[in-house]
Every structure is written in structure tokens, then in C-alpha cells.
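This part of the workshop introduces the protein records we will be handling. To make this concrete, we reproduce a full record directly below:
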Amino acid sequence: MLTLRKSQDRGQANFGWLNSKHSFSFGHYYDPEHLGFSVLRVINDDIVAPGAGFDAHGHRDMEIISYVLEGSIEHKDSSGNIQTLPAGEFQLMSAGKGIFHSEYNASKHHPLRFLQIWIEPNKVGPRPSYQQKSFGKALGLTTIATPTGENNTLKITQEAKLHQLIIGAGETFQFNQSQGNNLYVHQITGTVHINNTALSAGDGAQITHEETLTFCNESRSDITALIFELP
């Protein structure tokens, strides 16, 4: 079964320096019908003004993934990590027993756009950790995060997987689920048809009890999506 969540139906918050769209309830946006999906709690599509950002704040017992779409993030945290996260790279911060961090737009002239993703862990209280990596833009399926960190993926504290899917113009991709009964697809660019349901940029789909999915790109350019395999 596939349940579509259109981009325009997401929650929205605009603070001037930050324009954010929320796929699930977050901050002042509350929707009892969209509190999360399985262990996936947050997908925020954030646009941050030049030079602005999130001051130091704390997290605990959450797997926090950032994926930069445009610009770069300046990251600092209480574990001593000081990093720049450019467009196309993924960051996974396991908050564990507690961590403070700040995130700023590294540019004084251009906006920053990134996805902020929270996944609930299956262990509480471990030591915080930080991972960052570029996985490139190869066509097809690229696995980003796994519970074991196998094949140089990011290691996530949950029985979940995150994949990047890029499909060439006019191409089709068949996805076979490897674990669990829950999938979530977040469309980043272009329009894809999943078993004849169309997802455009910003749309999301909750998918249950479907072992095989067919993704069709009927456009004249590449399209990109994120696929979450969830328990």
C-alpha cells in the first residue's frame, strides 16, 4: 500500500533567516496524522539565509542525518568536530547520551538548502559519534547508511537503511526491499512514477507490505530520490 504526501501539504515555518518545510510534525507545526513513520521522525527541507544558522543546541538519543542540496554547512559540536559539509555530502550525527552542535550557512552571499532527517535509534545512551561522506552521483541505487556500516556506508544505530536513487531520463529501476515492511520515499528532484503513482519534488510516500517497487522516470532529465527501509 502506498500513501502519498504532497509537497504543498507539508507544514511550513518561515522565520526570515530560515524557511522550512516539514514532512512530519516539528516545532510549532503539529499534525496528529503526520507524527512520523515507523522510526522516521523528521524530514525538514530547510533554506537558510546567507550567514545565518542554528546556534548551539542539544540533542540526545537521535540519529540525525543532514544532506546538503545547495551551499555548505559549517558544523561544530561538543565532541570537538569542526567540519564543512558541502553540497552532495551526507552527515550522520548519532546524538547518543547527549551532544551540542551548531549549524551555519558557510556563505555570506548565497542561501543554504539541506534536508534534516531524524531517525529514532534502537539503543539509548551510547557515546555520541560523527560521520561524513560523499557518495557521488552515480546512476542507480547507492546505499548511504546501514546498521553495520558495511561497504563503507554510514553506520546508523537502528535496523534501518538509507539509499540514494538516481534514475536517468526515460529509465526504469526495480527496487527489492531487503528488510522490514516499511518504506518511505522522499522525492528530491524531478517526477517519478512508483507503481503508477507520481511523486514530484518534495513529495513523500509511505509504503507498506510491498516487496518490489518499480520506479519510472518519464522525463528528459535525471531524477533523484531518497529511499528509507524501516523496521
